[in-house]
C-alpha cells in the first residue's frame, strides 16, 4: 500500500457478531454512511475471495452519490479481509479479538487524490463510528 491511512475502533461485542455485521449486506445498509443526511440504499456482496462488492452511498436528497465497489482479494475468517477498489486502491480490515465480548477493528486504506488525507480519515472514521454504534445497539 502506498501512504496508507489507518483508523481503529473498539467494539463491545464478540468478534463473530462484529464480522457478520460488517460484511452482511442486510446490516451494511443500516450503517455504511458518514452522517445522517446520507444513506446506503444498496449493498451487494459476493463474499468470497475473488468476489465483488458494491455499496451505494447517497445524500438522502439524491443530489450526490457514489458506488464504493471492488473485489475481495483475501479472507481470513474472523481475522482480516483484503480487497481492492475499482480505482485500484487497496483496503485491509483487521478484526482483533480482545476478549470474548470485545473486538478491535483496524482499517488500513490507500487514500484517493481528490480529497485531503484528513478529510478522508474523518469520513472513514465517521462511518466506522456509525458501525460501532449500530453493532453495540442491535
From TrEMBL:
Activator of Hsp90 ATPase homologue 1/2-like C-terminal domain sequence ranges: 14-136
Signal peptide, first to last residue: none
A Pfam family the protein falls into: AHSA1
SUPFAM superfamilies: Bet v1-like
InterPro entries: ASHA1/2-like_C, START-like_dom_sf
Family in the record: Belongs to the AHA1 family.
Protein name per UniProt: SRPBCC domain-containing protein
Origin species: Chryseobacterium manosquense
Classification lineage: Bacteria, Pseudomonadati, Bacteroidota, Flavobacteriia, Flavobacteriales
Amino acid at each position: 500500500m502506498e501512504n496508507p491511512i489507518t483508523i481503529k475502533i473498539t467494539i463491545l461485542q464478540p468478534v463473530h457478531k462484529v464480522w457478520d455485521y460488517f460484511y452482511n449486506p442486510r446490516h451494511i445498509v443500516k450503517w455504511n454512511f458518514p452522517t445522517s443526511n446520507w444513506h446506503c440504499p444498496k449493498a451487494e456482496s459476493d463474499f468470497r475471495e475473488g468476489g465483488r462488492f458494491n455499496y451505494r452511498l447517497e445524500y438522502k436528497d439524491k443530489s450526490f452519490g457514489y458506488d464504493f465497489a471492488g473485489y475481495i482479494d483475501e479472507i481470513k475468517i474472523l481475522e482480516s479481509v483484503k480487497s481492492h477498489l475499482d480505482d485500484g486502491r487497496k483496503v485491509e480490515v483487521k478484526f482483533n479479538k480482545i476478549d470474548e465480548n470485545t473486538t478491535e477493528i483496524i482499517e488500513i486504506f490507500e487514500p484517493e487524490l481528490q480529497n485531503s488525507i484528513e478529510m478522508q480519515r474523518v469520513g472513514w472514521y465517521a462511518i466506522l463510528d456509525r458501525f460501532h454504534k449500530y453493532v453495540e445497539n442491535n
